[in-house]
């Protein structure tokens, strides 16, 4: 018993035509959203030459805040971060400046642990 060979046909070649790139146009947008848990917002502008700058912010009901101001242009992306979030320290990475009013790592951990345990310390006494 012989089986006949299967025949496969290739699809005909296709032509892909790339759409022409459009010239960047200046733009601007912004929003703010508020609710019972806090607020956040973002605003940004582009000048039509590739330079973009903006700012976004977060403010939570428990008092934590973060504001990021940024620029992206021919020199890259650069951000300035200001926050009071626990566990952050003022140590920049790359071209980012980072300013924090939060406790340092060990102090933040101790503060969190005492809150988590309801004021108890090792040995079971406050």
From TrEMBL:
Descriptive protein name: Cuticular protein
Superkingdom of this protein's organism: Eukaryota
Keywords on record: Cuticle
Any one GO molecular function term: structural constituent of cuticle
InterPro entries: CHIT_BIND_RR_consensus, Insect_cuticle, Insect_Cuticle_Struc_Prot
Region (Disordered): 30-57, 83-103
Organism: Rhipicephalus sanguineus (Brown dog tick)
Cellular compartments per GO CC: extracellular matrix; extracellular space
PANTHER family xref list: CUTICULAR PROTEIN 50CB-RELATED, STRUCTURAL CONTITUENT OF CUTICLE
Keyword Lipid metabolism belongs to the record: no
Keyword Mitochondrion listed: no
């Amino acid at each position: 018993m012989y089986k006949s060979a299967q025949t496969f046909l290739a699809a005909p070649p296709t032509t892909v035509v790339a759409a022409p790139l459009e010239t960047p146009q200046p733009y601007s947008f912004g929003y703010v959203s508020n609710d019972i848990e806090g607020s956040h917002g973002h605003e940004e502008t582009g000048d039509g030459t590739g330079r973009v700058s903006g700012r976004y912010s977060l403010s939570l009901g428990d008092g934590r805040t973060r504001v990021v101001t940024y620029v992206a242009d021919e020199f890259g992306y650069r951000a300035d971060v200001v926050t009071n979030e626990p566990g952050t320290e003022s140590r920049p990475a790359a071209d980012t400046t980072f300013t924090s009013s939060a406790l340092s790592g060990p102090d933040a951990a101790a503060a969190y642990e005492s809150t988590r345990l309801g004021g108890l310390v090792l040995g079971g006494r406050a």
